[in-house]
Amino acid sequence: MVAVNRSAFSLVEVMAALLVLTLGMLAAIGLVGYGMSLARIALARSVGMATAISVAADPTPLVDATDWTAPATFTGIARGYINGAWVERTESAGEVLATGLSSRLVTVEVYDGLKGRHVCSYQERILRRKP
Length: 131
Known about the structure:
By secondary structure, this protein is α+β, with helices and mostly antiparallel strands. It has helices spanning 11-57, 70-73; strands at residues 76-82, 85-91, 95-98, 101-112, 118-129.
């Protein structure tokens, strides 16, 4: 009878390889989930900043539609939902720079509509001409 030399992996080696493979797969799945949450946050920030810049220039979407003169004379706080976010726009009373011209500070805060988490802020000084 001729002796046959067989070589194979032991059960311990196979189990160790499966454990390493499983840990690698779980880490990859975790990274995909983390990447998706970062993408969701980045999207919320970009939409929030675009909304804030838009509302800083024109408060009309937040002001009562029955008062059509509000954009020219608006001072104070306007709040409401725009683009799925809660937006708060504050405009100061301003300081007079010249006859018929005033400088006002506009601050816009954007919050996540579902969780109420602060998304972004925008602040700008605007010039208003008195009617």
